[in-house]
Amino acid sequence: MRAAPWIAVGAAVAIGTAVFTAPTGAAAAARVAPPAAPAEHGTQVAVLSGGCFWGMEGLFEHVKGVTGVISGYAGGARGTATYEQVSTEKTGHAETIRVTYDPARISYGQLLQIYFYAAHDPTQVNGQYPDEGPSYRSAIWPQNAQQRATAAAYIAALNKAHAFDKPLATRIENGTFYPAERYHQDFMRNHPQHPYIQAWDVPRLKKFKAAFPGFYAG
Fold first, then answer.
1. How far apart are CA 82 and CA 100, in angstroms?
2. How far apart are CA 165 and CA 189, in angstroms?
3. Please, what is the end-to-end C-alpha distance for the chain in angstroms?
4. Amino acid 100: pLDDT
5. Higher per-residue pLDDT: 12 or 4
6. Could you confirm whether 52 is annotated as catalytic?
7. Which residues contact 90 (CB under 8 A, 6 or more apart)?
8. Is residue 33 very low, low, confident or very high in pLDDT (cuts 50, 70, 90)?
9. Burial of residue 3, with CB atoms counted within 10 A of its CB: 0-12 exposed, 13-18 middle, 19 or more buried
């Protein structure tokens, strides 16, 4: 379990002593283009899970064309959508982000390309690096039929290209998104020196910037 924001720095370092490294073969994922899809119009929403929502939110806040990111939970009931309950790993929820974006500047497929390549390791099952449990699973929550088709086609393309050293563990799921507690929102921006952020999330942000400089917003 990730160190909570109120845990002492020493305890957080003990939880995250290793530093993020890219999954083997991940560089190939950046070269597999997302599938073509019909143009979207007006503000759109993407809902994604990929481990701790602190880093996922922080990374997508730096994507050009993204107009807002909210951390939250998806996959379980409204009544169990709290950090304390989700942390029991018994609610069915995954830590999740809700991304609003301008499709005139970035497509849903391009968001998925960043998600698969830089935001997390999509080959890990029910966990991301120091965090273990189904609340840290890799999952996509399509908001319409076209998003579902795009996500399924892209997963198939990445697996066919052997873009990673293992098949993707990412699941396409159904569920309602519930915002997380206020202290989780903008966590990376508000706590840039937090040891968990420094060990696991800053390297992902640098990886994204290096691979997709045209989409990086400082």
1. 22
2. 32
3. 30
4. 98
5. 4
6. yes
7. none
8. confident
9. buried
Contact between 68 and 99 (Cβ < 8 Å): yes
pLDDT in tens, 105-139: 999 999 999 999 999 999 999 999 899 999 999 99
Which residue from 71, 57, 100 is spatially nearest to 205, judged by alpha carbons?
A: 57
- Give pLDDT tens digits for 158-179: 999 999 999 999 999 999 999 9
Q: Which fold has domain 9-215?
A: Peptide Methionine Sulfoxide Reductase; Chain A (3.30.1060)
Q: How far apart are CA 202 and CA 57, in angstroms?
A: 12
The catalytic position among 52, 59, 114, 197 is 52
User: Which of 153, 134, 132, 126 is closest to 142 using CA atoms?
Assistant: 153
Rounded to a whole number of angstroms, the CA Rg of the chain reads 16
Domain boundaries, the chain: 9-215
The 10 Å Cβ neighbour count of residue 137 is 23
HEC profile of 79-145: HHCCHHHHCCCCCCCEEEEEEEECCCCCCHHHHHHHHHHHHCCCCCCCEECCEECHHHCEEECCCCH
pLDDT of 39 reads 86
pTM above 0.85, yes or no: yes
Task: Measure the CA angle with vertex 185, ends 99 and 189; round to 5°.
Answer: 95
